[in-house]
Model the fold of this input.
Amino acid sequence: MTRRGLGAFVGLRGVLVRDAPLARYTSWRAGGPADLLFRPADRNDLAAFVRQLPADVALHVLGLGSNTLVRDGGVRGAVVVMHDPGAALAVADGLIYAEAGAASPKVARLAARLGCEGAAFLAGVPGTVGGALAMNAGCYGGETWNHVARVEVLGRDGRFAVRTPADYAIGYRSVRRADGSPSDGIFTAAWFAFAAGDATKARARIKELLAKRIASQPLSLPNAGSVFRNPEGDHAARLIEAAGLKGHAIGGARVSEMHANFIVNPGGRARASDIEALIGHVRLTVKARFGIDLEPEVRIVGDAARPVEAGR
Ligand SMILES: Cc1cc2nc3c(=O)[nH]c(=O)nc-3n(C[C@H](O)[C@H](O)[C@H](O)COP(=O)(O)OP(=O)(O)OC[C@H]3O[C@@H](n4cnc5c(N)ncnc54)[C@H](O)[C@@H]3O)c2cc1C
Done:
């Protein structure tokens, strides 16, 4: 894809960067550049960008990159970074309205302030609302889509649509269109419904869950949370630990000693290829030992090596 092929854009208010390093946009702090990166000023700016992006240019979405491994060769096409510290969060008709670029913990804190219970699980999920919708993020008995009343999505045609949970087949860390059509858009906002409760209890629950995380997860080192989905009836962390893999390292990437389902990148020295090789090694070792094929929960995107192209 030539620079010209990525499109010429007019009237955008957000930040548009070519050959933009992505490591800083992922919690693993690894990976190569995007051909084109766009940080929209707001949802209308995003729509303007999508409408102008040539139809044959791939479009990828990143929230806070806390569940994503970008390969070292980077991402061909355009990457939209949705995280926006100024994203709207409001109360509308008894629901919490959150733009997709808002950080999920903010939803938990607003819900607690409003005296709603059931949102505390989001307090420790370090991604965006859009990422939580795309992944059906969950923990400690809570799941994102259990609380979604409706969502707004932006299609590749640059048009917004409002959908309800009935439009999706929702499962464990999985969200697909119910009619089997391919996922067709960017989540731009959600309306959440949480049960009325007690603000003091809700705040206490947030504190309790954050304390549990601090005690059990390597939060001071770059990581992407749980690398593998839990297999039916078991825990990936238990299997990885039982396979003797805690502390196992490839290049700069290491299986956390604190939580075996986390791969950490101390000092940000790992290449994405180290992390991916370690994911592969863990998978093969657990399969050989227990006959269980662990499925990655993290999304792996991009090219292994940056191709050298004429004309760049
Ligand atoms: C320390 C730590 C703890 C974690 N704990 C948990 C946990 O308890 N439970 C849990 O479920 N996850 C957990 N995670 C993983 C991660 O935080 C969640 O999956 C989170 O919801 C991802 O949000 P994000 O914005 O970072 O997504 P990204 O990593 O940026 O993207 C993830 C996927 O969602 C897609 N996506 C992102 N935004 C949008 C959008 N607006 N529209 C359409 N698609 C979009 C991306 O294309 C990608 O496929 C943890 C991660 C870390 C680092």
Remarks:
- The two ends are 9 Å apart (CA to CA).
